[in-house]
Amino acid sequence: MEKQQLQCDLLASVRQMKRGRAVRVTPAGTSGAAQALVRVGLPQRDLARLSGVSVRALRDWEQGRREPSGVARALLPIAASNPRAVLESA
Q: How far apart are CA 37 and CA 48, in angstroms?
């Protein structure tokens, strides 16, 4: 019976969304690292190199698993607000 109820609930949710009547909306935030990466337009490996960190660390920042520290913490807001400055320093 649980499986049938889940299927009915999912179908009802899809119908609500199609009508534009979602019951709950969960906003998704983006990290400063993700914003910087998009604004600068560099591949992850290049932004990681400029930040002096590994690509894995950058991915952790983007996904909110870790917070940047040191120079990277200072560089990311600059990269997000003035991508040209970062590109010129590359």
A: 10
Q: 58, 48 in Cβ contact below 8 A?
A: yes
Question: pLDDT tens digits, residue range 35-73?
Answer: 777 787 878 888 788 777 899 988 898 888 888 888 778
**Tokens found for residue 37:** 């990466």
* Distance from C-alpha of 84 to C-alpha of 26, rounded to nearest angstrom: 33
Six token digits for residue 76: 């990311």
CATH superfamily placement of domain 32-89: lambda repressor-like DNA-binding domains (1.10.260.40)
Residue type at 37 in one-letter notation: L
Q: Count CB-CB contacts under 10 A for residue 57.
A: 18
